[in-house]
Amino acid sequence: MTTPQTPIDAAQAIGQIAVALPGSTAVFRRLKLDYCCGGQISLQQAAADKGLDVQTILAELATLQRSDAAPQFASASELIDHILERFHDVHRAQLPELIAMAKRVEAVHRGHPDVPAGLADLLTEIEGELLEHMQKEEQVLFPMLKSGGNPFVVHPIGMMRSEHVEHGANLERLAALTNDMTPPAEACTTWRALYAGLKQLGDDLVSHIHLENNVLFPQFEAPPADTGCGSGGCACSGD
To answer: Which portions of this protein are annotated as coiled-coil regions (predicted)?
Structure first.
């Protein structure tokens, strides 16, 4: 994941952009721009060959550039809105494209010793679990938190924390299957773009979980009871 990113240059090779900017492959596939076998030509030339406006393409690619900077929020409601836009919406866009690329890599390179066999199935499993998790947050937990919370909100929060642990375990499975998202030296552009996208998914999911576990949820969880003697009103001495 790039942070913060410099503007994309139309003179860059389209294959270089595909690897450097996760999510760009979906744009290129939709526009039928060959970023893999024909990835050595510039984006400018690729667009011209298809009769496409390169500035329009650059503007769309710019929307994929994201910053790792941690913004400040005045309220839990603002933080929730940020989580929904920056992570929930992004995960929903990331995973279908990663699954499509994984299927292609597994099919085209099935005889390669480093092919990540089973990656598409694992990503499909991760997508299903993550979509279900986010739906529970959006339909149940987040509305409760936006309304101020209640004494019972600790139960759905506990469930979400438990599922976050499972998401972390899935990231470890991804790393093990892909040699820690490191493609072989001779990997094609699609393979390298796939692993760059997996790295971004991992980074985004870790940041997503961190914001919820360490910033949002503690605002609604009761602090541990103080069993020690305070400075006043202590009855421990039994006078």
So the answer is: none
Tally of CB atoms within 10 A around 222: 7
Cα separation of 209 and 225, whole Å?
Answer: 26
Which residues touch 128 (CB under 8 Å, ≥6 apart)?
none
For residue 232, pLDDT over 90 is answered with no
| Neighbouring residues of 236: CB distance < 8 A, sequence distance ≥ 6 | 229
Handedness of CA 191, 195, 200, 205 (dihedral sign): positive
pTM: 0.79
CB-based contact 125:174 (threshold 8 Å): no
Kindly list the domain boundaries of the chain, sorted by start residue.
14-62, 76-219
pLDDT band at 36 (very low <50, low <70, confident <90, very high): confident
d(CA 102, CA 140): 33
- Which tokens belong to 177? 């299957």
Residues in CB range of 17: below 8 A, 6 or more apart: 8, 24, 35, 43, 61
pLDDT at 51: 95
SS3 content of the chain, % helix, strand, coil (to 5): 60, 0, 35
Confidence of residue 188 (pLDDT cuts 50, 70, 90): very high
Q: What is the pLDDT of residues 53-76, one digit of tens each?
A: 999 999 999 988 876 665 678 899
Angle between helical axes of 89-108 and 119-136 (0-180°, round to 10) = 170
Cβ–Cβ under 8 Å, residues 119 and 106: yes
